[in-house]
UniProtKB/TrEMBL annotation:
Record domain ABC transmembrane type-1: where: 72-285
Protein name: Multiple sugar transport system permease protein/alpha-1,4-digalacturonate transport system permease protein
Major site of localization recorded for this protein: membrane
Record keywords, A-Z: Cell membrane, Membrane, Sugar transport, Transmembrane, Transmembrane helix, Transport
SUPFAM superfamilies found in the cross-reference section: MetI-like (SSF161098)
Membrane topology: Multi-pass membrane protein
UniProt-listed Gene3D superfamilies: MetI-like
PROSITE patterns on file: ABC_TM1 (PS50928)
Highest taxon of source: Bacteria
Transmembrane intervals: 12-35, 76-97, 109-129, 158-183, 204-226, 263-284
Subcellular location: Cell membrane
């Protein structure tokens, strides 16, 4: 009896620690998600009566919203380029930082700094570097004979690559640390045995490093995909979706519809579509990971 009472007391203490988190999640996350689903079936402009319209918002999205297909293509372009580039640079830097590089602790800190620094500060520095008129990047390009260097964020063809570069610079340090943790878990004896057998650096990578970090790679790809699909703050701070609609992505389109046009019902419908797209990509990645793991 005393044991049961003691266990019950320990359980209550444990639940009391996690209860605030559950309450916060329920109020600030779960309820808004449910309301978003409900509002996607309604028409509501701030200050007016909420009207149930069924699937009208979704029909309007695919038939009347001329910008929807454009922002969806921009979002996919942004994601498809950002994810593999960030993953590649993160892995390469992690391998470099895992070697006997002199001053590697300093370089790790420098590479990780953009991730923990304010996005506003990082964006200002990046845009200054790529300023069409006075930026050091274009100054270097002019010095090597390029008379008309790109206008970067001011050019509709170069704006998205510029933002992608900023996103990679901002996030590569974090995912480098994730890869570094995975690499440090690889037994050194495996590399030593491979060197004794005469394996080249490339063979060591393909047969030891890559299979070991594959689960980490799936995690990195999943997190990057989710973050890039819902990215809005970088575009808001740097280009406001411009020039024109060159960097206008789905999350930024949702923001405009909700807080500029006051079309909260339609913005909720757009949010549901974004949620379904991210969910589909996530489930696909889990399926590929499971198949790949089984093959190994």
């Amino acid at each position: 009896m005393l044991k049961k009472s003691y266990r019950r007391k320990k359980s209550l203490i444990a639940y009391s620690f996690i209860l605030p988190n559950f309450i916060g999640y329920f109020i600030l996350t779960f309820i808004p998600i449910i309301l978003t689903f409900v509002m996607s079936l309604c028409e509501w402009n701030f200050g007016q009566t909420v009207n149930f319209v069924g699937f009208k918002n979704f029909i309007q999205m695919f038939t009347k919203d001329s910008q929807f297909s454009l922002v969806l293509i921009n979002t996919i372009y942004y994601t498809v380029v950002t994810v593999p580039v960030t993953m590649l640079f993160s892995l390469l830097l992690a391998m470099l930082m895992n070697s006997n590089l002199k001053g590697r602790v300093f370089f790790r800190s420098v590479l990780f700094f953009p991730y923990v620094a304010s996005l506003v500060a990082i964006a200002i520095v990046w845009m200054a570097l790529f300023s069409p008129q006075s930026g050091p990047v274009n100054s270097v390009l002019r010095s090597i004979g390029i008379a008309n260097p790109p206008r970067w964020a001011a050019d509709k063809h170069w704006a998205m690559p510029t933002i992608i570069g900023l996103t990679v610079w901002k996030g590569v340090g974090y995912y480098m640390i994730v890869y570094l943790a995975a690499l440090q878990g690889v037994p050194g004896e495996l590399y030593e045995a491979a060197r004794i057998d005469g394996a080249s650096k490339f063979q060591q990578f393909t047969n030891i490093t890559w299979p070991t970090v594959t689960p980490t790679t799936f995690f990195v790809v999943m997190m990057l995909t989710i973050s890039t699909f819902k990215s809005y703050d970088i575009m808001y701070i740097t280009t406001q979706g411009g020039p024109g609609t060159a960097t206008k992505v789905l999350a930024y389109h949702i923001y405009n519809k909700a807080f500029k046009d006051n079309a909260f019902g339609y913005a909720s419908a757009l949010s549901i579509v974004l949620f379904l797209i991210v969910l589909a990509f996530t489930l696909l990645q889990f399926k590929v990971e499971k198949k790949f793991t089984n093959d190994l």
